[in-house]
Specification:
This protein has 349 residues and is α/β, with parallel strands linked by helices. The chain is built from twelve helices and 14 strands. It comes from Cymbomonas tetramitiformis.
């Protein structure tokens, strides 16, 4: 519940990770608007005010990648030649999704939590706030999220709490998260050789994760097989990934349901990465884990601990809900273990 000091603030969150943060801080009563990708019963009261920027009929990863590139190029062109009216700039540039500008106008937000596009422009946030003020007729604060390291994520959680006037919620929320982090990292057996993990974020073109993924893998007791300094993800060839020789090949594709990723991985891995015969292949729910830099990164850490240390932490809490093995025999065994631990059979992929 929001406190009396914050109850008059109207917040729109256009980024799932920031909506997760608001909910973790127990401030969801402040939400008046959210993105179409922000799920959870506690946010259903907030109006949906976004949609996808690309046509839903586009299916292949190559076409999706090309479509995102076209949208980005068009925005850059429009900003530089100042040809875009404020409502168009807001619609296509305020966040990672397409914003319903009329819905936003009706919501009259005081604060918009988002990831402003064109962030390479140092004045992007200022320009967007000016566009909002022009279109809405009232000042609006933008909170721009762009964490590069785990510590940035934790600092953003506190910054959101401070912005809405609830710093105590931030301190309490971070205490809970750090306690879970400590519990998860304590599980990794001492002296065990680090398993090399490669996280596939996108299939074609092939993007493999680095950045804060490297930190999460390290905290879980592993090593990122493809660690590129100061790069969130690296575009590479199939041969380069095979040369990295990961012990675990983990698909963490964003914006695609885990069941679909699993189906694709079972066909794709033997065809594209046949030389990785010793690698354990798994898929994770990239819509909720890994790619949402907020409180759910702690769930991601716990999931990684299950994957990297199956003896010390038998698959249970997160298995089949948030990740699963690609190999059917490994999957069936993990399902049985998880079901035995929970005392109920409820796992199916």
């Amino acid at each position: 519940m929001a406190t009396s000091a914050t109850s008059r603030i109207r917040v729109v969150s256009l980024l799932p990770s920031l909506t997760d943060t608001i909910c973790h801080l127990e401030l969801q009563d402040l939400l008046v608007g959210r993105s179409h990708e922000c799920e959870g019963l506690s946010t259903h009261h907030a109006e949906i005010c976004t949609s996808s920027k690309i046509d839903e009929v586009i299916q292949s990863s190559e076409d999706i990648d090309a479509a995102h590139g076209s949208v980005s190029s068009a925005l850059w062109s429009g900003v530089f030649d100042r040809s875009l009216p404020p409502e168009i700039l807001i619609e296509w540039g305020l966040g990672v999704y397409r914003t319903n500008v009329e819905a936003l106008r009706s919501l009259r937000p005081d604060i918009v939590l988002t990831q402003v596009q064109l962030a390479n422009d140092p004045d992007a946030k200022t320009k967007m706030e000016a566009a909002l003020r022009s279109f809405l007729g009232t000042p609006v604060q933008i909170f721009h999220s762009d964490p590069q390291r785990l510590e940035d994520v934790w600092l953003e959680i506190q910054a959101v709490a401070d912005l809405v006037g609830a710093p105590g919620r931030g301190h309490a929320g971070m205490t809970k998260l750090r306690q879970r982090i400590s519990a998860a990292t304590a599980v990794a057996p001492a002296g065990q050789a680090c398993k090399r993990v490669a996280c596939v974020q996108w299939s074609s073109p092939l993007y493999v994760a680095s950045g804060y993924f490297t930190e999460l893998i390290r905290l879980a007791g592993g090593k990122n097989a493809v660690d590129r300094v100061d790069v969130h993800s690296a575009c590479m060839t199939d041969a380069e990934l095979e040369a990295a020789q990961p012990d675990i090949l983990l698909y963490t594709v964003c914006s695609v349901p885990m069941t679909s990723v699993l189906e694709s991985a079972r066909e794709e891995i033997p065809r594209r990465f046949g030389r990785l015969t010793k690698a354990v292949a798994a898929v994770a729910d990239g819509c909720r884990l890994f790619n949402r830099p907020g409180p759910l990164l702690v769930d991601t850490l716990e999931m990684l601990v299950e994957l990297l240390h199956p003896v010390a932490t038998p698959p249970s809490r997160h298995y089949a809900r948030s990740w699963c093995y690609v190999d059917k025999s490994l999957h069936d065994s993990a399902v049985q273990t998880a079901s035995d631990l929970d005392g109920v059979m409820q796992y199916s992929i």
